[in-house]
Structures are given as structure tokens and as C-alpha cells.
Amino acid sequence: MALRVCNRLLSLEQQVVLEAYDDQLEIVRESEVRSKAKVETIAMLEQTSNELATHSQQTNGLIQEMTARMDIIAQNAKGGRVLAEEAQQTANDGNTQLDKINRTIERVEESSRMVGEQMKNLEMMTNQIKDIVGIVKGIADQTNLLSLNASIEAARAGEHGKGAAVVASEVRKLAEGTRDSVMNVSELVNKINEYVASSSSSLEQAQTLVEETKDQMNGTRKSFKNILQTMENTKESNVRIEQDLESFLQAIYEIEQSAATLATTAENLNVMMEELNE
């Protein structure tokens, strides 16, 4: 009976020991599994951290390169805007000069027109003088003829016609002098007419040149107007580019800040892994 009890006690103790061993073995196994999972987790975190650090460095490098290029583009856009403003100012100055030249041409045109009218009036006056000269010449010729007839009649009268002959001779001299003066005046009038005709021809050519120059100036003014509009469009385009680049640079700055935050997170993750390894 006692032996049987002892056997039961031994069996019970053995069972307790075996169960304790099994429990301990299960704990060890669970610990090994946890340790293995921990190692795998740490390895995965380490790999992820390294990848984050690598990507962060690459991203930061790309951002810096992109920022440098954007700065160059921004400087070029600013330079283009400045050049456009300078070109616009130059075009404005040129347009102002064209306006002054055009006003001068208009004054020249008006003066030429007035001179042309005066030349026509002068030509009319010389023609009138020529007509008067013709009349005076006719009178002189007629007077000369009458004085000649008077001289003939005085000669026929003999002694009584001597006084009349003297008067007729003086009248004939005056008529001849008048005719000579009239001929000189006629020659002067003809020369004046020639000068007037030549001046009128030159004036017409000058007026034609003025008209052509005026047309050219109008075409040049139109070209300057187009240049001014183009420069204005270019300036506005460069201003928009500058504004877009500023927004783009701001976005790059925000990305750079995010990349820096990512790098900090990767560093913190490395510290945590080191603590886990300890």
C-alpha cells in the first residue's frame, strides 16, 4: 500500500517536473521566436532606415541641383525683363524722336505749300508785268511811228515846221528809250519766269520727297508701335515667369524641408535600432 502511494507520488512528481520542463521549453521556444522576430524586425528597420537615408541624400542632392538651376533661370528671366524694359524705353525714345521729326516734316510740308502758292502768285504777277510790258512796248512803237510822221510833216512845212520837228525828234528819242527799257524789263521778266519755273519744279520734287518721307515715317512709327507692343508682351511674360519661378522655388523649399524631416526621422530610427540591439 505504501509502495503504491510512493509510486503515485513519484509519478505525480515526475509529471509535475515534465510539465514544468515543457512549460520552460515552450517559454524558451517563444523567446527564441520573439528574438528571431526581433532580429528580423531590426534588420528590416535597419534596411528601411538605410534606404530612407539614401533616398533622403539623393533627394536633397537633386533639390539642391534643381534649386541652383531655378536660380539661374530666375536670373535669366529677370535679366530678360530688364533688357525688355530697356528696349521698351529705347523704342519709346525712338518713337518720341519720330514724332518730333514728323512734326518738323509737317511744318516743312506746310512751308513748302505756302512757298508753292507764293511762287504761283509770283508767276501770275510776272505774267501780268509781261502783259503790261507788251502794252507799253506797243505804245512806244506807236509813239515812235507818230513822231516819225510828225517829223516828215514838219520837214514839209519848211521853216515853220522846225519847232515841231524838234519836238517830234525828242518824242521819238523818248519812245525809243522807253522801248529799250521795256525790252530790258521784258528780258528780266523772262528770266524771273525761268527762275520761277525752275524753283517750282524743285519745290514739287521737294514736296514729293516730303510725302515719301512722311509715308516712310508713318511706316517706321507703325514698326515702333509693334516693337513697343512686343516688348510689353515680353516684359509681362518675364514677370509671369519670375512669379511662377518664385512659387516653384517655394515648393522646392517645402520639399527640401520634408526631405530634411525625413533624414531626421531616419537618424532617429537608427538610434532606436541601436537601442534595440543593446
| Share of residues in helices | over 70%
Major sheet characteristics: none
CATH class: Mainly Alpha
The fraction of residues in strands falls at under 5%
What is the global morphology? rod-shaped
List the total number of helices. 2
Total domains: 1
Secondary-structure element sequence?
HH
Radius of gyration: 61 Å
How does the helix and strand content classify structurally? mainly alpha
Can you give a write-up of this model?
Helix content is 98%, strand content 0%. The chain has 278 residues and is mostly helical. The protein has a single domain, classed as Helix Hairpins (Orthogonal Bundle). Helix 1 packs antiparallel against helix 2. The N terminus is likely disordered. This is Methyl-accepting transducer domain-containing protein. It comes from Compostibacillus humi.
Short description:
The chain is built from 2 helices and no strands. It is mainly alpha-helical and 278 residues long. The longest helix has 156 residues, at 2-157.
